[in-house]
Amino acid sequence: MKIKDDFLWGGAIAANQAEGAYAEDGKGLSTMDVVPMNQKRQFIKQGKMSYLQCQKDDYFPTHQAIDFYHTYKEDIRMLAEMGFKCFRTSIAWTRIYPTGIEEKPHSLGLQYYRDLFQECHKYGIEPLVTISHFDVPMYLVETYGSWRNRKMIDFYIKYAKTLFEEFNGLVKYWITFNEINVILHNSFSGAGLILTDDENLEQIKYQAAHHELVASALAVKIAHQINPYNQVGCMLAAGDYYPYTCHPEDVLLAMNRNRESYFFIDIQSKGIYPSYIDRLFKEKNIQLSMYDNDLEIMKDHTVDFIALSYYTSRCASMQKQKDESEANVMKSIKNPYIPSSEWGWQIDPLGLRITLNTLYDRYQKPLFIVENGLGAKDELINGTVEDDYRIDYLREHIKAMKEAMKDGVEVIGYLTWGCIDLVAASTGQMSKRYGFVYVDRDDYGQGTNRRFKKKSFDWYKKVIATNGEDLY
Asked: Where are the active-site residues found (predicted)?
């Protein structure tokens, strides 16, 4: 089976991991701007530590990142040389509304993104834009408690409506929230939540999630009103949980772990709260506050496609929970049948095929792989990187995607994560590299910032040119 000619090959970045220029041209302070690269990082991301300002003794990797804010023309040209059909990025909320409460959007921020999207179109590259990619104005965090407060819906909708209007005709594909299920695991980076031990934490997380889900549905409504050709998707941090053994308790646990994530997509895709959530809410003493028409809004304005990131599968065990470790945010038992990356993320291409089939069976909506990649330590020698390990990783995942498509799964496109090296969201490191383009910058922002093509650059160029036929 050949992939359709309009398949969207490309890559993805995020504003807070690439742009830098965190305080230039009137940009306000955002959540990831205050997350340092040190031993406090994970606690802050999880919402377990209040960290509202940048401390002078800490290093904040997003402040410089790879300076994409100033180098985007050079970088887009390199992506175009590979033949990109699609480029995913996010918009920094605080470049458009520095505090989130302004009456009018910031003209310099609008102009920057307009120029960026026009640069993409110059090369025939379709932008895919994430409206909120781990990004909340810090003013809204400090003043309103971020998404725990229903007022956030209005702030978000004002922001989203501005984007739909200002970039009408420049952007067709949109994602409302990046990896929306991450709110349950990294609550601050996911939704700007700061949690305290004297609260019902699950109540706070699911109430905030409800507000995001209503906001997402309203964004779909407005996008379609402004331009019926707009395609708006939701996004899942995907990767099925396998039962660690065939013990029925492991099977049940894996099912419930998967449902934790599917919950969000069930609502955004089907428009209803799933029946299985009633028991969880009762057992965790969760009582959602909602307006009378919230359920109607979500029912009437479901997404057009389902975007997903995929890096790894996961395992669940009732007997071995004490051995769980973080695997791309979510806890997992180590799977003895598959290898691991240098950062302990397990490599499971077949898991991508399984996950794609699961999602398509469940939702029957087009899927869009918007993140897939390998974080690795690259060594620049004589102006290039011999990253055969990355080529092998991507090749096997593309093969798995093609097998899923043979299974009958509809896939819109395939975007690699971090198509140009950027700051890793998990660790804040530059040394955890994903790209086809090496950026000469180290973990503490030192280096020339020059770009170098890796071996994988020409390999991916060939993959795109042959529409996925030649993977060697």
From this structure: 371 (nucleophile)
